[in-house]
Automatic annotation (TrEMBL):
Chief site of localization: membrane
Protein name from the UniProt record: ABC transporter permease
Transmembrane residue ranges: 101-122, 134-155, 196-215, 254-276, 296-315
A biological process from GO: transmembrane transport
Alphabetical list of PROSITE patterns matching this protein: ABC_TM1
Length: 328
């Protein structure tokens, strides 16, 4: 098991290095001039030349890549051309909001997907009332679900807010729900939960169906195994058979799909944050693209890619723990 974990983590490090190389190459071959973007269109040629020298842009490409990696190791992602602050500082400001949104979206996706899978595999009566609307909603793109949710729950019913994170103050963690709870701000906590609910559910619906379908298929295959039929013949209820004999042997494909969907959530969060004016890195990225803010774009891309790679590495480790045969 230890050797498998070490190999999997080592491959994740290699993938992150490859990702950083791709980002560096794309940034280097871009037609835009980062120095002009940083100094402004009215900067003199002398000022531009001096800044290029100061930033090391006149160095050979291999030297620039080595400096890029060294800066990454030291947590230096450059200066944003738009905000004129270190990109790391900007990410520290905006990333917690995105992580909070994605974590709760993932929790909702796993819960909804689990209910979808178990209710279908056990043939619960009336479960189609839950599964059919979820399937229909999953066919709609997230931006359409978001707009429909705003129209229904904000404009028509008036029970959920349409934008922002709420009036509560963030604290040391940057996660509004945790900070308001620790501070004893019940009104701020309730407001944060209300603001979070709609965008989190919108982001969770499509991943929930993907997880639920894979998990249901795996559960149904396992229910057909001989040892499961033997357990049922001994008088165990379907729920006890599910809990004792089926879940662990069926969870591998569901874990794999959950890891993929977690990565897709971080990719899809850009659209959802735009619609709900959620102050996360999705909005930060969307504001950086029109201004050709290369350090900010590269920083967000590297962070999202790293999260995706690490999430899938952890999923592989969890699969190996659930089924030791995989690391043989």
């Amino acid at each position: 098991m230890t050797r498998f974990i070490v190999r999997r983590l080592a491959s994740a490090v290699v993938l992150i290095l490859v990702l950083s190389a791709v980002i560096f190459v794309l940034q280097s071959v871009s037609t835009g001039d980062p120095v002009k973007a940083y100094l402004g269109a009215n900067a003199s040629p002398a000022a531009i030349a001096a800044e290029r020298q100061a930033l090391g842009l006149n160095d050979p490409l291999p030297v620039r890549y080595v400096n890029f990696i060294v800066n990454l190791v030291h947590g230096d992602l450059g200066i944003s051309f738009r905000t004129h602050r270190p990109v790391v500082t900007d990410l520290q400001t905006f990333l917690p909001a995105t992580i909070e949104l994605v974590i709760w979206s993932f929790v909702f996706a796993v819960l909804l997907g689990g209910i979808f899978a178990v209710s279908g595999a056990l043939r619960w009566r009336g479960s189609s009332i839950f599964r059919a609307p979820l399937l229909v909603l999953a066919t709609a793109p997230p931006f359409l679900l978001a707009l429909g949710g705003i129209v229904l729950f904000y404009a028509q019913l008036g029970i959920l807010p349409a934008n922002g994170r709420g009036p509560g103050e963030t604290g040391p963690t940057g996660f509004l729900l945790i900070d308001t709870l620790v501070a004893g701000d019940t009104a701020g906590f309730a407001s944060a939960a209300q603001h979070l609910l709609l965008p989190a559910v919108v982001l969770a619906i499509a991943p929930a169906i993907a997880i639920g379908r894979i998990m249901r298929s795996s559960l149904e295959n396992t229910f057909g195994a001989d040892y499961v039929r033997t357990a049922e013949s001994k008088g165990l209820t379907p729920f006890r058979v599910l809990r004792r004999h089926v879940v662990r042997n069926s969870i591998g494909p569901g874990l794999s799909m959950a890891g993929l969907q977690l990565g897709f959530m971080f990719a899809g969060v850009v659209v959802v944050e735009q619609i709900f004016s959620w102050p996360g890195i999705g909005n930060y990225l969307a504001a950086s693209i029109p201004t050709s803010d290369f350090p900010a774009i590269a920083g967000v891309t590297l962070v999202l890619g790293t999260i995706y790679i690490v999430a899938n590495a952890l999923v592989d480790v969890l699969q190996a723990i659930a089924d030791p045969r995989l690391n043989a």
